[in-house]
Amino acid sequence: MNKKRKSSSLLRLFPFVFLLGMVFLIGNAFITVDYKEGISGWSSIIRLNLAKLKMCKTQFRPPGSETLPRGIVASKSDLEMRPLWGAKRNKKPKQNLLAMAAGIKQKESVNKIVNKFSSSEFVVMLFHYDGSVDEWKEFEWSETAIHISVVNQTKWWFAKRFLHPDIVSAYSYIFLWDEDLGVDNFDARRYVSIIKEEGLEISQPALDPHLSEVHHQHTSRENKSRVHRRTYKVIGRARCNENSTGPPCTGFVEMMAPVFSRAAWRCTWHMIQNDLNHGWGIDFQLGYCAQGDRTKNIGIVDSEYILHLGLPTLGGSAENKTDSGELDQTKSQHSSDKTKPSPISQMSSGRSEVRKQTYAELETFKHRWKNAVKNDECWIDRFRA
Ligand SMILES: *[C@@H]1O[C@H](CO)[C@@H](O)[C@H](O)[C@H]1NC(C)=O
Ligand SMILES: *[C@@H]1O[C@H](CO)[C@@H](O)[C@H](O)[C@H]1NC(C)=O
Ligand SMILES: *[C@@H]1O[C@H](CO)[C@@H](O)[C@H](O)[C@H]1NC(C)=O
Ligand SMILES: *[C@@H]1O[C@H](CO)[C@@H](O)[C@H](O)[C@H]1NC(C)=O
């Protein structure tokens, strides 16, 4: 098909090339009879057209826009609100984006989180998975937030559908957060200035180890440091040290509170699978989206840290925190090994179904990754020792 098209476009070019040749010949003939002035005009026009042809051929046009003049093509967008009439108020566009899942049962926690993000610097986008939207109107920030409501969907489902990289490319950093986070020791503006300074393409605030559900040693807060990029603990069979090159020792963040740079998000978006709603497995592969060395460009910010409350927010009774309390203990016993299912007998049935689903999805994702690697002859594993 492609070949055919190529050769047919060559055919179409043929008369043009032929004409050019003729003009050139005639031009040469004229030179011999010394009409130099007119000729140099002609040939310069030809040269110009040739240059133009060459330039236009190499010019990039977004797919689908080839038939439009370039200046009219708006291939990217943003989430700024626009007035219905009158001039646009001369406000500075917002620099960053906070997108988070939001159920009305977590109203207080969501409100606290949003209040940590200055409204002049952050666009706020809420993914409502419980159908409640009007119930948020009591908060002043709700009026300028972007509300998306689809019942029973996860953060990753929303992110894949509503945070397309071309839509959110206006934002330097994208916070894609869960709602069950304690933010007493977190300030978004300071956080952004730290990751900018440290050159972190993918990051998360450290988890307070005393009060959080900590799944991975690596993301647990270290005292006295501003940022850390690796852990030195022994994790299962892995003995993490300064020579470790990847997860679980370095080069990943957890999925409850990741922060992406524009470029890292563009890559990560592509990795999110449409049918794997819980996003499990992506965390350990984020290194491939780190825009270079994952041991340098991925890090945990210790000086701005959060609590992970570990509430069963989707697919379970969110009111009953005793569930998650018990989950915490089983978690910390087998800390940091997600592939080992924790006992699920004490959980509500919705919750345990979700749990089962996440492990199944993790296996599917790993399987897909393996196959993709096997079938892509051109792909080079940049992290292969
Ligand atoms: C870190 O600091 C907290 C109190 O701020 C203290 O309880 C804890 O023992 C410290 N941990 C280490 C490893 O120094
Ligand atoms: C790390 O690598 C260096 C150089 O190969 C080696 O000398 C050192 O012993 C290694 N450290 C650990 C903890 O294995
Ligand atoms: C959403 O999930 C709840 C259970 O968690 C269920 O009762 C309800 O029917 C679901 N709604 C839709 C539209 O799927
Ligand atoms: C939560 O669990 C406790 C005991 O485990 C029970 O007494 C209580 O009624 C539950 N609350 C809700 C809202 O389900």
UniProtKB/TrEMBL annotation:
Extent of Polar residues compositional bias: 342-351
One Pfam family this sequence matches: DUF707
Keyword terms: Membrane, Transmembrane, Transmembrane helix
Transmembrane segments: 12-31
Designated name of the protein: Uncharacterized protein
InterPro entries: DUF707
Bias-annotated ranges (Basic and acidic residues): 320-340
